[in-house]
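for the record, two folds in this file. i put them one after another cuz i was lazy. first one right below, seq on top, structure tokens after. the second one comes after a little note so u can tell where it starts
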Amino acid sequence: YEVDMTSAQLSIFFLYYLDNNWDGGGLKSLNKESRLMLTLLLEGNIYQYVQDNSRVFGNYERNDAKKIILVTLNAEVNENIFNKELGRLFPKFMSWINSIKTEKGYKKVSHLGQSIEASIFVNVYRSLPNDLFVLPIHDCILSTQDGVEQIKKLLIKRVRELYPRILTPNYELDKLFKIKKVTVDNDKRESVRHRRSKEKEQAALDLLSIKGYNILGLKRPYRKGISF
């Protein structure tokens, strides 16, 4: 199983943006765009909102739209249709992203995202007990079924520690992280199914042999001195 962050990279950047543009006046003082970003973050449907409210991204399948958005966030500043469309949906946020690229180079955005990911996922990974199977991979942690609920709780606790002004105790963060099965059940694996199929075939042939039939279903002609 894996525990990952919903809409991971956008969620990470939304959190960082909201925290760094906090005016100290409380959540009610947030502008309309920031309130929207926080709502989408908590509901775990950032990408869905983008597709539902954009003819540009709405023309793509979900995974394709996601890839385009991530490339746009991490690419050099340009005036292509995707950058402009994200700027239409989140004008202040995209202005902030593009200003980072302009001032510090476009690679700074991806470096920032990786740093925030590590501060969340690596920190939680290091705090887990040694007898629990875990494997950190960028914006998710792999584990067995008995470990994922504990990991999810620790990830939620960690983001609250990092962004206490944004993620106040009254906000439910269950949708910010999700648990997903990423491996096939052993009895459904192709290799296992193939082996079991062969075993059944052999068992059937063995049964026919015991009963005196060949593979064509014909009675074996037992004759002295003749073998088949």
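(here's the note) second protein begins now
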Amino acid sequence: MTLYNEERKRRYIDKKESEVILAPNFLQNLFKKTAPFEEKYGKDLCEWTTNEIIEFYQYSDVYSLSYMQLINSNYALYTTWCIAETLVPDGQNHFLEMTPDTLASCVNNLLLGKLILSYEDLQLYVDKLDNFTDRFLYYAIFSGIVGTGYI
């Protein structure tokens, strides 16, 4: 999949990767996710309104508020760069308008709930393991053997 405004995004990616260490293809993957919506809206993500951002986030099906904040932060940094390059017609960074409550409302809590394993589900799967050491490890981790900071 190609990026919307690919040349612009490549310039930004090259600049960021020369300044900071990022995971391979991190920014490119973030921009690939927005491309269908950029096509739909007929404009670069740096030009999106608050409502368009929220629609994209709700469609993204993210189940982690931390990840939602991470992507919002990166899109805000990109938009700030676009503003400095005079590429944003209204000169506003609407990603900075996203409050923690707004981002939290875009998180898919139903999916998050399915990721949480109950003790009964743990028993159902772990008790099928042949190796008792493996069983012990799963129960120990579930019970918090490494401390409360990992629960």
